[in-house]
Design brief:
Blueprint lengths: L4 E4 L6 E3 L2 E4 L23 H17 L3 E4 L16 E4 L2 E4 L10 H11 L3 E3 L11 E3 L4 E5 L5 H11 L3 E5 L12 E3 L5 E3 L6 H10 L4 E2 L2 H4 L7 E2 L3 E5 L3 H9 L3 E5 L2 H4 L10 E2 L7
Parallel strand pairs: 3-4, 6-7, 9-10, 12-13, 15-16
Antiparallel strand pairs: 1-2, 3-17, 5-6, 8-9, 11-12, 14-15
Bound molecules: NG,NG-dimethyl-L-arginine.
Organism: Microtetraspora malaysiensis
Protein name: Dimethylargininase
Keywords: Hydrolase
């Protein structure tokens, strides 16, 4: 059944669309290894606090009228909470993830199985890719990051499978190791991004494609403010991204601030916890 159109955000005349998200409760969340500059196993993380913060995120989506489905967490996979990395789903077609680091390898098949069990059309990837961490879907194009995790060969493979043009963007700053740390779609046609995370060529591509983009500061990017989730009217964003939040409000978005400081210790924010299930429209 198609999801309904959300009412316009109260602070503007933008109209959001209800979404279907897959999330994974962080019952086994921990920082026991370091595969990005945000992670410090000596500092660790508080699992109970991570669960509380994650529950707030889930509740925020449900309050906005979105549907949330859950995948069971697996003991021994502490990063599985970052559901965005589990796959790319476009028009009901699920392109599986193949992780860069051995610590996360088992997550790929676990996510793909969830979709196969529910009769989605799935594809096992040949090439390394970290799902929606590096693939961000707009109406007519999929933006795809490379440089740290996802191979360009996976961009080509994904394009063939989902049938939307895939545009490669090169990431150059290790703090912003996935595309979803440096850019998020505001709606089907526009984005917000931090230019310093991209190579010069990719910055030029973004300028050309999105002349009306919202440009974020390094300060907001450095608290993972761009790891945000928008339905076109409501933007769920890390509370610490104060400048970007104010700018989005000025532009008429309803900004929903969430506190995910515990998950940031593993390098994740709201978007990382959220895999969008874009079902087949029949079109
Ligand atoms: C916003 N990002 C980067 C994500 N989409 N996922 C977070 C993954 C964190 C995990 N420790 C890792 O380094 O893979």
């Amino acid at each position: 059944m198609p999801l309904a159109t959300l009412p316009a955000a109260t602070s503007g005349d933008r109209t959001g669309t209800a979404r279907h998200y897959l999330m994974c409760r962080p019952e086994f969340f921990a920082v026991t290894y370091a595969i990005n500059p945000w992670m410090d196993p000596d500092q660790g993380a508080d699992t109970a606090q991570a669960v509380r913060q994650w529950e707030e995120l889930r509740a925020a989506y449900e309050r906005l009228g979105h549907k949330v489905s859950l995948i069971d967490p697996v003991d021994g996979l502490p990063d599985m909470v970052f559901a965005a990395n589990g796959a790319l789903v476009v028009d009901g077609r699920v392109y599986g993830a193949k992780f860069t680091h051995a610590e996360r390898t088992a997550e790929g098949p676990a996510y793909l199985r969830w979709f196969a069990d529910r009769s989605f059309e799935t594809m096992e990837p040949t090439h390394t890719n970290e799902g929606e961490g590096d693939f961000l879907t707009l109406d007519d194009v999929v933006l795809a990051g490379t440089g740290f995790r996802t191979d360009v060969a996976a961009h080509v493979e994904a394009q063939e499978f989902v049938g939307r043009p895939v545009v490669t963007l090169r990431l150059i700053d290790p703090r912003f190791y996935h595309l979803d740390t440096a850019l998020f779609p505001l709606d089907g046609h526009n984005v917000a991004y931090y230019p310093g995370a991209f190579s010069e060529g990719s910055r030029n591509v973004l300028r050309r494609m999105f002349p009306d983009a919202v440009i974020a500061t390094e300060e907001d990017a450095a608290v993972l403010g761009l790891n945000a989730v928008s339905d076109g009217a409501n933007v769920v964003i890390n509370a610490e991204a104060t400048g970007l939040s104010r700018e989005l409000e000025r532009l008429g978005y309803n900004v929903v601030r969430v506190e995910l400081s515990e998950l940031r210790k593993a390098g994740g924010g709201p978007k990382c916890c959220t895999l969008e299930i874009r079902e087949a429209t029949g079109a």
